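During the no-cost extension, the postdoctoral fellow (Dr. R.K.) reprocessed legacy sequence entries with the updated structure-token encoder. One reprocessed record is reproduced below for audit purposes.
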Amino acid sequence: MRKLFLFVLIIFFFASYSYAANLRIGGVINNEHGVGIDEVEVYILSHDKIIASTKTTVNGSYFKEIEIDKTVNPKDLTIEFKKTTYKTIKSKLDDILTSSSVNGDNIFVATTNKVMGRTITPAFWISLIVLISIFALISFEVFHRTVAALVGASLLLFISYTFGTFNENYFIISFDEAVHSIDFNVIFLLMSMMIIVGVMKKTGVFQWLAYKSYALSKGNVFKLSIILMFVTAVASAFLDNVTTMLLLAPISIEIAIMLRINPASLLMPEVMASNMGGTATLIGDPPNIMIGSYAHLTFNDFLINLAPVIFIILIVNVFVMKLYYNKEYKKGKIENIDELLSKLREEYKITDYKLLKHSLFVLGFVILLFITHGMLHMEPSIAAMSGAALLLLLSGVNITEIMEHEVEWTTLVFFMMLFIIVGAAEETGFISLIATVVKDLSGNSMLLAIIFIMWVSAFASAIVDNIPFTATMLPVVAYLTETIPGAGNTLWWALALGACLGGNGTLIGASANVVTAGFAERSGYPLTFGSFLRVGGPTMIISVFIAMVWLLIGG
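Re-encoded structure tokens follow.
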């Protein structure tokens, strides 16, 4: 009897095994713009019971292989795709199923590619309200921008893991998605350049440049203004515009007071030039760093495509500044120029030649890496980090002092929190909605897309900080670049030119403007919102118009 039972059991095992089959299923899940959706829950169901599950990867693809027994007919199986803020898709495998036999095994294969449409949930409205509120708080300086961004990012994650735990319609963004949305290439690049500039400041080279500018002008104030504009533009292209104004503004104010002219006549041309110069390169202005990292554009891409038009804009604005401040320039006369030059030479001189040599060597090395990073397939942040590490080794400066006083941790935290806020807006569908509106307005027209992106970016960046605006526009421009025929990288240049040059429009349009105004106010010559607008507004419009024409004619 025992032998009979064992025999029946063996027969049953082999019979079951022979009827077992493998099901291989895969495909890609895209949104309505053809972009892959990650972390979509994929369920294989038999009579509404889940028998297997998987998730889509970062590019929206998924694959799952399962073994099914003879009690399950593969054609009766259902596949379901589910993700918060997207419409759930459920379909039978019958129509897409193919079968074959390999070494006696039954293999069923199903390939299903789906497009998931958005659905408006409470998560959408929460992320939208938080995004708009943070923009408003930053623009009107109700709180420090880092505090505002930190509150916004924390609130989104808090809601996701409290209300969202009990009701998926309130789940906005996961912690993994939040971390993934932070562009660490931008963070490490900014941090490394801050270290390099911090070390270079100890040499006195920036103050020496201001002195040499005045010496070259030989007492001609308009000529001095031109020289300072170009020094500021070049420095901003290879450092960043905020750092450049932090270093040059106090010296320019001192020279203006010695010349008995309003410091605004030197400061305004400088800050305009700093925002222009910063537009010319990958590392000159934070929006460019963000665009370059997101779109995988190299240092040379920016230099070749933007530097020529920025040079033209800079030349035109020399005459614009003369128009505004010519009366002030004529007032600036010093009877004993040699005595003033002697005083400036003594006060603003190189203080550490050895450190300067090390700094210039490392800066040259970093710029060389920036120029070749595309060929080396190296992220710009790696070039900057290598230079920062090398300079710290060569200089022997106190690392604690540099990290505490020269690295702007509040700015870096601001960027990280901002990336999370924009990532949440992207996850819940707000960015997708903007992309659809822009796409409909441009109607697949490259000309309209350039005009729309550039002018919207310019005016928006004049009203709100150009950093959060750029972060919001990155996925929108990425979508348009993929869908408009022959777009290439042109729309990225439209965004860069609009966002960076738009910063000249108002006092709050760029961080460099606010920094410069702070120095002017402390010197007793405040730059008010109105006085800045009278010069910056027309300057912005002229600059953006030149840039627009440049792009439209294929520059």
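The chain has three domains: 21-115, 122-181, 205-349+429-552. The longest helix spans residues 299-331. The remaining legacy entries will be reprocessed before the final report is submitted.
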